[in-house]
Every structure is written in structure tokens, then in C-alpha cells.
From TrEMBL:
Its cofactor is heme. This is Uncharacterized protein. It comes from the Eukaryota. The keyword Metal-binding applies. It comes from Penaeus vannamei (Whiteleg shrimp). Heme binds at C61.
Length: 113
């Protein structure tokens, strides 16, 4: 990506689209749970600056690849062993330094046979 394009993208996200996480411009149908939006090659391309959980630039998180690998491994192992269900209706969010669920996440884990 050209530097000028990168700066324009960052400006759109940080200045025009704030908060990007719930912006339909940054994420079409932003408020719907569509995890497939993150798959490569699926639908509209997400602006690379729209979600920066690990920061960006020279001081960005050095543990990013490690953390992502841990998350993928945990989820793969968890869904391999358990059926996971949720029977408590929609979960809201609250901001407590970071955005988090507004109540405990009491998932039901059923061991797969
Ligand atoms: C989901 C997990 C993680 C998230 C969301 C996360 C997020 C972040 C963010 C936002 C920053 C600040 C980036 C900036 O200033 O622009 C950061 C910095 C940092 N993270 Fe992480 N991090 C995660 C996991 C980890 C792990 C597993 C490690 C170590 C193995 C790690 C090590 C560091 C270090 C050393 C810095 C400071 C880098 C610097 O200042 O040069 N992080 N992280």
C-alpha cells in the first residue's frame, strides 16, 4: 500500500468513521454477528486500519502472532472436544477500560462423544 493511501485510510478510520467497530462504512452490517466477514477473499474487503487490537507501527504488539496462534489453538481444541451452547439471550457490552461483555458468559460445554 502506498504511504499516501495508508494515511488517507487511517484518516478515514480515526477521524471520519469513529467509532470504526460499529460503523457500517468500515464494516457492512456492522451490528450483525458475521464472523465470516474476517475470512480472506469473502465479500467486501475490510479496511486494514478499521480494527487495530494490537496497535500499529514500530511500537505495535510484539506478541501479536503468538497471541493469535494461542487463540486459534485454544478455539480449535475447545470445539474439537466440546459442543458449546449459549441459552441466555443477547449479550450487551460495557466499557471498563476495554469493551467487554456486560455480564458473565455462562456458556454450556457438553463433552463430544
Ligand atoms: C490478545 C492478546 C493481545 C493484545 C490484544 C495485545 C495488544 C497490545 C497493544 C494494543 C499494544 C500497544 C501497541 C501500541 O502501543 O501501538 C501491545 C504492546 C505490547 N504487547 Fe501485546 N497484546 C496481546 C498479547 C501479547 C502477548 C501474548 C505478548 C507477549 C508474548 C505481548 C507483548 C507486548 C509487548 C512487549 C508490547 C510493547 C511493545 C512496544 O512497546 O514496543 N502482547 N499489545
Amino acid at each position: 500500500m502506498e504511504p499516501v493511501e495508508a494515511i488517507r485510510n487511517a484518516f478515514e478510520v480515526f477521524v471520519l468513521l469513529k467509532p470504526a467497530g460499529t460503523s457500517d462504512q468500515a464494516f457492512p452490517r456492522a451490528l450483525e454477528f458475521l464472523p465470516e466477514r474476517w475470512l480472506r477473499g469473502e465479500g467486501d474487503r475490510i479496511n486494514s486500519y478499521a480494527s487495530l487490537p494490537f496497535g500499529i507501527g514500530t511500537r505495535m504488539c510484539i506478541g501479536k502472532r503468538f497471541a493469535e496462534m494461542e487463540i486459534y489453538t485454544l478455539l480449535a481444541r475447545m470445539f474439537h472436544r466440546f459442543d458449546v451452547s449459549w441459552n441466555h439471550g443477547a449479550v450487551g457490552t460495557k466499557t471498563q477500560f476495554i469493551l467487554m461483555p456486560d455480564r458473565p458468559l455462562n456458556f454450556t460445554f457438553t463433552k463430544r462423544t
